Amino acid sequence: xxxxxxxxxxxxVRAALQHISFxxxxxxxxxxxxxxxxxxxxxARDAIAQILTNSRLSAEGHRxxxxxxxxxxxxxxxGMRARFEGDRTLQELVDEGVRQAWRxxxxxxxxxxxxxxxFTRVNTRDNTPAVVHVALVPGEHLELILAAxxxxxxxxxxxxxxxxxxxxxxxxxxxxxTMGAGWCPPGMLGIGIGGTPEKAMLLAKEALMAPIDMxxxxxxxxxxxxxxxxxxxxxxxxxxxxxxxGLGGLSTVLDVKILDWPTHAASKPVAMIPNCAATRHxxxxxxxxxxxxxxxxxxxxxxxxxxxxxxxxxxxxxxxxTKEEVARWQPGERLLLTGRMLTGRDAAxxxxxxxxxxxxxxxxxxxxxxxxxxxxxxxxxxxxVGPAGPTTATRMDRFTRMMLEEGLLAMVGKAxxxxxxxxxxxxxxxxxxIAVGGAAYLVSxxxxxxxxxxxxxxxMEAIYEFEVKDMPVTVAVDARGxxxxxxxxxxxxxxxxxxxxxxx
Length: 504
Description:
4-stranded mixed beta sheet, alpha/beta, globular
């Protein structure tokens, strides 16, 4: 009987997490490439092109696909006849692998985990602890299924206790629009049905680890009731017209995965968790012969999209920007930003609010500036900043009016804004722009200089000043309060419905 050594587990976890930080699963790349070829919405097609271009750049440069390098989830399937070295727990060994992966000097990953979650929320600085689920199974091997889930997609998890007679597809169709675009579609939906509430959520998460095969399933036809359910939900969600980044289009999901478990006769628990455009998961098995490594992917399977800024995009000088110029921007218009911008996200906004409440001066002036919602990865080698894609803007909605009252002209983030923020933007004749979530390495190429200007103790949540050159963004909410995250999906939902009626 083989002995599975501690160092082999640690090295396997470290190597796998580094691998998935810069290599997309090939099945995802190929499914997204097919969606790109089929997409008819110019805005969605441009967003997918950026994600695909970013994916190749990350694979070639061995740098993170997304600045949110995720919270590590590990499904460990332990063979009941397996032998382990020493008395360190599996949790301790996985955590050491995470620690080494996040502190890799060639590709440091962004530490995002905070301890004391209800109160002080202090960053652990090494992304530990991981969330580890253990199951005892037949055999003498250790199978590890590792995922690095970004907060944007995790925050969109949904759960419901349906009545036994309720329709699951109806619930999904009603619920997906409430998730907004912060999960960076197009991605996958993992659905768990049955068991108890916590079991359904676990099933939904584990379902996301399966390979994408919707095209093959539809080509051969469903062979079970669950496969029929997968296809029905896939079609109904894509008919919503949400599209890439929520801008409206044909592809909202690339696949739907379902796992189920027997449940109480009075219950029908259903959970849904999305995977984002930075879908990251690895499957490795240790048999006692040493660390297990993932095979290197063939980059020839990546499409050569070669995204470049549109010649039709409006060039904006951030250093001379005025309210009058912002007011002329149109919803959905593509811009290329050049000049100096500030950054700030959750912790920085909360600290600014606290300073204002105490009547204390702010450490930096926001008058006449543009603010980017971002928490970048640390730089390596000749980088001025690591991957620096946008974070979900809705988390800053409660602070938007406060920031605009400080003279802020516009903001950059990802996903939609809520009614509170849109009202503040309209009242101040400001604007909100989006950068593409899932294109962090590509976006960072536009950043020519970076320096911390306030709240250095917050780490990646500090306020930076970036100097950018032709940073690509899209106007998502204009000075009149028109949101493309409302108008885009509405238009494409209508177009898709019309086509279905014509083909009936």
